[in-house]
């Protein structure tokens, strides 16, 4: 079938909106008509070559919409079902079998090679293959193919097009707090970065009953927004030494530090306010994959510090996405308030607006 997609043709070049040919669903695949797709920093990093994916390439990994067709092995979804698309996993390795698909032993193969794991393409154009299957979906398009394991049927009062960010960024931030670090009530949480992942962590911290939730963020609008969704204090890192600013608002230190920036200098400064038995959670991806975080061994021992790398918030999307939607129904997880929508055709303007900090979270609407 013909579908319209935003195509990356070269690193650091604007997307081009083009028609491509999308194949039909394989035995365990689902064809989804995309109602909306989140724009994530990971998509931009992939466009710019950080993952080494081939071009031309269709990205997008926070899709949502309705089921348009299913493969013959898919018996538990029906045409018209509202769904959210999340990351792909094999379902058969040790970690998948243990309910931890974010650490699938074949994660790269299922999400980051530009094709299905067997090397077959889901998209083509006259003259050659179109690379895709990004995070098992490539949802910067009017339609996407996804493995059944990536597809989460949902029930919600929200417009289906707004739900896509739950499939990656939102579940990563909330899951880091609720699953990975298992933040306890009455504790102090510092969130480094007030983007969508950090703000989802703030909302989750409020649900968990943290006594203090501090957000470090350079953009004034995002600092102000953080205070409306659960932050008890905000810090502008430009106002002076970060450790001093944090110590002023959490004089007893932080029990949990959650980094979404991937910036060594920010993480190192924040560690200066780590309390005894603190946990540092890491999801921010640095521009240079080889960068290392210096850690004083003796201080880490004295504090009883835990450093935890986190993928997708340690989430099982089939379980955690419905849980987050239930919190939304209860008025405790207002993730939709950070979203601004753009037509898919305006993807390049949306990228620039998000880069400038004018919008917290972009959702692209293919139907506009």
Automatic annotation (TrEMBL):
Domain Alcohol dehydrogenase-like C-terminal, residue spans: 196-316
Cofactor field: Zn(2+)
Pfam families (UniProt xref): ADH_N, ADH_zinc_N
Keyword Zinc applies: yes
GO molecular function, one term: zinc ion binding
Domain Alcohol dehydrogenase-like N-terminal, chain residue ranges per copy: 26-154
InterPro entries membership: ADH-like_C, ADH-like_N, ADH_Zn_CS, GroES-like_sf, NAD(P)-bd_dom_sf
Keywords tagged on the record: Metal-binding, Oxidoreductase, Zinc
Family that this chain belongs to: Belongs to the zinc-containing alcohol dehydrogenase family.
UniProt protein name: Alcohol dehydrogenase catalytic domain-containing protein
Organism: Nakamurella alba
């Amino acid at each position: 079938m013909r579908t319209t997609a935003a195509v990356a043709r070269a690193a650091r070049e604007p997307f081009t909106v083009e028609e491509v040919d999308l194949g039909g669903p394989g035995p365990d695949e689902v064809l989804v008509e995309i109602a909306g797709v989140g724009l994530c920093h990971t998509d931009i990093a992939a466009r710019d070559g950080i993952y080494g994916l081939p071009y031309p390439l269709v990205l997008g990994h926070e899709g949502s919409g309705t089921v348009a067709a299913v493969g013959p092995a898919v018996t538990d979804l029906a045409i018209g079902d509202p769904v959210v698309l999340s990351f792909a996993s094999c379902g058969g390795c040790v970690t998948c079998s243990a309910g931890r698909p974010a650490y699938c032993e074949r994660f790269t193969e299922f999400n980051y090679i530009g094709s299905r794991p067997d090397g077959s393409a889901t998209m083509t154009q006259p003259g050659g293959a179109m690379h895709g299957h990004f995070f098992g979906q490539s949802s910067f398009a009017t339609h996407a193919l996804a493995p059944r394991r990536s597809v989460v049927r949902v029930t919600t009062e929200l417009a289906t097009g707004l739900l896509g960010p739950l499939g990656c960024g939102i579940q990563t931030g909330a899951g880091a707090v609720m699953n990975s670090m298992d933040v306890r009530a009455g504790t102090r949480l510092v969130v480094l970065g007030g983007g969508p992942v950090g703000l989802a962590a703030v909302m989750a911290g409020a649900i968990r009953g943290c006594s203090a939730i501090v957000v470090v963020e350079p953009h004034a609008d995002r600092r102000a927004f953080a205070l409306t969704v659960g932050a008890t204090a905000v810090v502008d890192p430009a106002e002076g030494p970060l450790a001093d600013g944090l110590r002023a608002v959490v004089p007893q230190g932080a029990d949990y530090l959650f980094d979404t920036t991937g910036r060594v200098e920010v993480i190192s400064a924040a560690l200066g306010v780590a309390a005894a038995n603190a946990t540092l959670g890491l999801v921010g991806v640095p521009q240079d994959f080889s960068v290392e975080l210096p850690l004083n061994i003796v201080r880490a021992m004295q504090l009883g510090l835990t450093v935890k790398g986190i993928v997708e918030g340690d989430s099982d999307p089939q379980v955690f996405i419905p849980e987050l939607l239930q919190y939304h129904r209860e008025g405790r997880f207002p993730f939709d308030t950070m979203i601004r929508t753009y037509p898919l055709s305006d993807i390049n303007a949306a990228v620039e607006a998000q880069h400038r900090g004018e919008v917290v979270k972009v959702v692209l609407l293919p139907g506009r």
